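Sample A.
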Amino acid sequence: MSYNAKVYKVFIASPDDVRKEREIVRSVIMRWNAINAESKKIVLLPVGWETHAAPETGKTAQEYINEEVLDKCDILIGIFWTKLGSPTKTAKSGTVEEIQRHITEHKLAMLYFSTKEIPNDVDVKQLKLVRSFKEEIRNKSLYGEFLDERDLENKLYSHLEIKIAEGKFRPTWDSDILARIQNDDELVAEINNHFPLVARNLLKNIIDECRSDEVWNAIIKKLSKSPADLRESLIFMAKRGAFRHKAYEAGYNALAKCSQVDFGNFMSTLYSINKYEFYDIYNKGLLEDSPFTTKLLELISKDVFYGGGEEEE
């Protein structure tokens, strides 16, 4: 019998030395679906470049994987053992680039490192790269380790259960669903249960709608948990000329408090969009004088528009 369910795409990222582990991830996902999909109305769809990528000219292989496969996924599971992979234009390997790109969008990433015995013919250089990457992320995130294939199977299934119970599985397209909610109280409750990226996309979808203060406050509160998303949302509003929008003033005040770096970046962009609005905010004293903002402050001091410096002929 058919039933409605949310489908979450799970991207499997790894070098080629863990092919067996990749199949285990697929097996665990399908087992979870068989047991839970109907009762929880959730389906996990395993995705990988080898099964979902198609030939195309005009892009590098990694660019195609990023844009046509990875970006359409909601969750990433990364696995490492003895190899990091081949370097790309922007990262130490294709797998690392995928992880970094996914995390930048504030999507859920679950990383695992194998601790099983190292083979005698291991590529020492690659092994060092894996260990260096592992150390690099040690203080940035929580990762898992597994002794063998059975250990990975047990831990991954358990971790999927935990993340789903925590509500961490949220598709990025949820913003389209939220935008259709007409009851503002219901919308506020949904915003509180989603990632900042969803709030950022929702803001773009409903920017021209008449919504309650509670809705805009909920969006700004959620975006404050991710200064980069809040910054990009403010830039989006500035480009649209939405300077009198209820969320705009609350947004830049919140950004100034949670991240002066992102606030400085926002102000730098606003300077090129609308100087009147830039100086209106600047005169409120929200921008702190720091090494990061020195260049911007020097520009202001020389700006004829602001009353400093000499106008060039």
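Sample B, a different protein:
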Amino acid sequence: MHRAERMALRAVWRGAGLPFGGAVLAHYRAVNDELWAAYRRGETTTAALAVERFRRTLRAHGGAERLAPRLSRRYLLELAGRGDLLPGTRRLLRALRGRKLAVVTNGIDRVQRSRLRASGLAGHFHAVVTSERAGYAKPDPRLVEDALRALRLRPEEALMIGDDPRSDGAAAHGAGVRFAWVDGDAPVKRANGFPVHWRVRTLDELHARLRPARG
């Protein structure tokens, strides 16, 4: 996600004739994280969030705030067309062929579904559960429970894979599902007090952990 975000933001920023650099990206990410946290608390909507993150970044870096709605629309179009993947994604999905898989995301529904198609991975997943369509967001466990119902799985039969213990780990724990944390930089073995079934640095490492279970 980080590469897709960076490339889409750079294209939009430069397309508006604004200088783009590390400071702009860092500020945008900080504001974006803050607004998504507010969204998870039910304090804002995806529509408001999508524009406000640009308004605040423009304000901080000398751009005209009136550009925010236009840049927001262009950014979502850029992001929706990107299918960037983490290394090892296709190998892992090939290994999981035949298993029931779902995407569970707090992202904007149309953007996430479009990105999935752009990546060529849509056919691997039996369900896509988004916070925008569900009406609640991770760490609310109902999002994971919706995925379990769609896949017709019991919690003990499932494993949730994610990179954010604050939302992914908490949602999995609340739904009674094991959590695999893909985060090579984390120095701890537990995430916010929630148990982590596996902590791995890469998807290839996760693939190696899953292989014995295939029997």
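Observation for Sample B: The chain has two domains: 2-80, 89-214.
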